[in-house]
Here is the input.
Amino acid sequence: MRKNIVAGNWKMNTTVPEGVQLAKEVNAAVNAASGLKCDVVLGVPFTHLTAVKQVIDINKVGLAAENCADHSSGAYTGEVSAAMVASTGANYVILGHSERRGYYNETPQILKEKVDLALENGLKIIFCCGESLEERENGSFKAVIEKELRESLFHLTPEQWASITIAYEPIWAIGTGKTATSDQAQEVHAFIRSLVAGQYGDRLADDTTILYGGSCKPANAPELFAKPDIDGGLIGGAALKADSFMGIVTAF
Ligand code: PEP
Here is the structure.
């Protein structure tokens, strides 16, 4: 069964006490809400994972790291392995965010290693893909997205695929205030689902959760989430305040 998910991506924001406070507020709001139609996940900096885990009900609010290393352990100063992430009690990791691809040169091959290590360590993956403005305007965006998925994910077995959530994040819409229209997003989500169907069959494709990310807010979430292939959101800026994040969580 396909799940709806709204996941926050805090990026490099909040100190540990601020993050703990935000997580407490979201956890309380999720507990107070009745009949939520989506799962809720908080994507937080590595430094926050252990402290945030202590203040959330992990059965109701999932916990994601925003990255993990492409090696399992060893002399990689400053890196954080998938096993370390899992040992905090986190159950998700966000991989392939355009900021990591762009600023830290994460290639499809590096992401494939990260995907494999995350799965070996029992983490579910929110895997981001999406095109630049130039790629949107020159019409190559579908080829770009297909390449990103094919090169980092399509080696997985159908059993492993069950741990994958895709996030379509047009780079030109991230943090810019520009949202893809609901029709533009729906077109790409349906395209992604057709790629998954080609690789894994219709049943797994139908079960795959595909999130939209890019300036999603309480005001535009209802229209986006009403589309048949949009199963929730990966939320940056609007996840940094409990009330705006909950405004999106309750948009279904
Ligand atoms: C993101 O970075 O994943 C994101 C969607 O950011 P924003 O919501 O701020 O555009």
